[in-house]
Every structure is written in C-alpha cells, then in structure tokens.
Amino acid sequence: MTPPPQPPPPAPSWRGRGRGRAPRGPVRVLVADDSAVVRRLVTGALGRDRGIEVVGTAADGRSALAQVVELLPDVVTMDVEMPHLDGIAAVRALRAAGLQVPVIMLSTLTERGATATLDALTAGASDYVAKPSGAVSLNESLRQLAADLLPRIHALATGVPLLQPTTAAPVLRGAVPARVVVLGSSTGGPEALARLFGSLAEPPAVPLLVVQHMPAVFTRQLAGRLDRIGPTEVVEATDAVLLAPGHAYVAPGDRHLTVVADGDRVRTAVTDTPPLNYYRPSVDMLFRAAAEVFGSAVHAVVLTGMGTDGRDGASAVVSAGGTVHVQDAASSVVWGMPGAVAQAGLAHDVLPLEELARAIAAAGTIGGAGAGAGTIGGAGVRPIARGGLSGPRVVRR
Q1: Which CATH number does the domain housing residue 130 bear?
Q2: 327 found inside a domain
Q3: 280 in a structural domain
Q4: What is the number of structural domains in the chain?
Q5: When you count CB atoms within 10 A of the terminal residue's CB, does the N or C end of the chain come out lower?
Q6: pTM to 2 decimals?
Q7: Are 217 and 133 contained in the same domain?
Q8: Bridging pattern class, strands 103-107 and 75-79
Q9: Is 186 marked active-site?
Q10: Residue 309 annotated in active site
Q11: Distances from the Cα of 314 to the Cαs of 161, 341, 345, 389, in angstroms?
C-alpha cells in the first residue's frame, strides 16, 4: 500500500500563532470533510463570528494536507472518516512533518466515533466536537456547531500568556499526605491523562477521581484506554462504589461525580443534578465534595482545558488545607483551567506533565500515610490561609 503523502516543511511565512501571541486579524480556518453538506454547515457556523475567516475547504485528507502547507491556516477542523486519507492519518502526517497547527476533529456520538476520535487525539489532534444529530433542524445544527466550535477555535488560535518562571523548590516538599487525588481536565485532557497514567510505574497508593469534559460514550472509551496503558485499574464511575487505592474512577459523561462519607470509608456518588456553570460533569463539584470529605488530605490536579472549571473547587481544597497542582502553560493545549487556578493564587505548584505524574505517584506516600487511602482521617495539619498562596512554585523543564 502506498504510504500517505508527507507534506514538506512549512515555509518561513508559516502563520500559526502559537501560545501567547496576540490576534492578528481574523483567525484563519481550513474546513476538511468529505461531506459537502457538512462543509457548508461548518462554514455557515463559523461565518457567525467576524473574527473567523474560512480560508479553504477540503474533501479528503490528502487535500487537507496540501492546503495546510499552501494556506497556512491558524486552525483546521477535520472529519474523522474521509476517503483517500482519513482524519487520523492526516493528523499523524501533519505532526510527523512538524506542523503544529491546531486540529479540531468532528465526530459522531457513537462507539465507533468515540474510538476514532480518541485515536485522533492520541495522534496529535487538539480537541474535538460532536457533529449535530440529523434529527435537529438546520438552525439548531448551526447553533450547536457555533457554540461548540467558536470558543475552541479562538482558544487554540490565540493561546494564553505564560507565567514568568521562578526558582522551583523540590516538588511536593512539605505537602500534606493524600488520601485521594482528584483531577480535572477539558481540551487536551485525554492525551494529558494518557501520558499521566502511562507514566505511573505502579498503582497509586490512593484512589484517583477524574472529571474530563466528554459525552458519555466517550468517557467509557477513555476509561478503557487509561486502564490498558498503565498499572492503575481505571473504570467509568458508577454510584455508591467504595474508593480503593490503586483504582481510578472517571466521571461518566453528562453525570456529576462526587464523593460521600460512609462511616470511615468513602463512596462515589454519581448524579444527574443540573449542570454547574454549564458543566456536567463538573470539576468544581468534584473538588468541593472531596475537600468536604477528605479535608487537608485531598490533592487536586488541574490539567489543560478551556474555561475556569476547577477554580472554585481549588479554592475549596485550599481552604480545607489540601494541595493543588496545575499543569504548566508550555505542556497544555489550552491554559484556561489551570491558568485560572494559578492566576487566582490557588496553586501550590505549576508543573509540566512529567512532574505532575511524579506528584501523583508520591501523593499518598509522603510521610507514610498511604495506608489510609480512600478513608477519612486525620492528616492533622495547618490549612493554608483562605486568602490563597503567596505564589506558586513554577517548575520548568
């Protein structure tokens, strides 16, 4: 079989904006989909924003690769399944050629679509959106696509400013031993989680609870993938399960995941209560519940993602005396969620992914407290003042 074409290296005039650069006119978008109807639909949705310009369309992956080099778009929207060269192979070819233009995959809400989308994210895609159902009207389809695509395109095209580096203290020095680790992520989260879980040499000494903003069919697939790539036993969370060390529980899509005390043990609570600040599952809700149940023995990790979900929850963790780590801007796809926590003065550390993996691995063992993982009990330490921290430690690679 003939291998897919490899695009040449980008010309010096490559226009990709990168993290932290100011907008320079409209965001230039290339739309790739084998369906002419979908191409028109996406183009129409993007046309609702004067800050976005569709500079080209492609009907297959080969054409998309050629147009990326020719047109130098700021962002590409890419169908997963296309003739000649599918979206996954096209993303791999872009990354192999050193082209880091952000790619947003368009996917169907099916098991097959979820599998293909996660494959694309692993290959280097930046994010994904679900295609509107055929059962909705044209206007509703346009509204849904605009609501999903527009903020992602702007976030990926313009990036975010970096924190100024400071001298880093040793990771976790003086941290309170954990009895649970809670993690929250959104855009870029599936790949960040895969790298974290894959970096663990042995099952963690404490239970992990994860909120990733994803539909239900996607979270089942995500849990299965995380379970296969490392020593941690990972499942999609169900209600009323006792937390166990070495296990991770991924919030099901469109359901909230929290924790409740059951004597001296702790159980999961999975509910369909209303979204919190538009999110269900909500990182804030999980973090708050963990802080209430575990107090100072909770460690919270905020990974790459758009928006501010997790900031209020991090505040609750800090007020309870717990520990908050956030992913750094350099390793984040979008430094929205972790940046909001850091800029609010709530982060103990601002760390690259590999350091976060070490923090998770060490969380339940510092001070020899791992034996009580998943139970309520006595870390007995002085909480941080409610006003926040004087400033996070920033670790640079």
Answers
A1: 3.40.50.2300
A2: yes
A3: yes
A4: 2
A5: N
A6: 0.85
A7: no
A8: parallel
A9: yes
A10: yes
A11: 21, 7, 10, 12
- Across the chain, where does the E strand assignment appear? 27-32, 52-58, 75-79, 103-107, 127-130, 180-185, 208-212, 233-236, 247-250, 256-262, 265-271, 298-302, 323-327, 349-351, 393-394
Containing domain of residue 354, as a range?
A: 180-394
**Cα torsion angle, 150, 153, 157, 163, sign:** positive
The tokens describing 197, both together, are: 């879980």
381 in a structural domain: yes
70 lies in the same domain as 214: no
Which listed residue (63, 126, 186, 282) is catalytic?
A: 186
Q: What SS3 string covers 145-202?
A: HHHHHHHHHHHHHHCCCCCCCCCCCCCCCCCCCCCEEEEEECCCHHHHHHHHHHHCCC
Residues 84 and 192 in one domain: no
Q: Let me know if 213 is a catalytic residue.
A: yes
Catalytic residue, from 148, 213, 284, 299: name it.
Answer: 213
Retrieve residue 239's tokens.
């209600």
Q: Between vectors from CA 79 to CA 75 and to CA 81, what angle results, nearest 5°?
A: 150
Mean pLDDT for all residues in the chain: 86
Per-residue pLDDT reduced to its tens digit, 140-151: 999 999 999 999
Residues 90 and 225 in one domain: no
Are 124 and 185 found together in one domain? no
Of 309, 312, 328, 349, which residue is the catalytic one?
309
Q: Is residue 32 part of a domain?
A: yes
What token pair was written down for 366? 């510092």
3-state secondary structure 306-339: CCCCCHHHHHHHHHCCCEEEEECCCCCCCECHHH
- Whether residues 302 and 380 fall in one domain: yes
Among residues 158, 193, 220, the one where a domain terminates is: 158
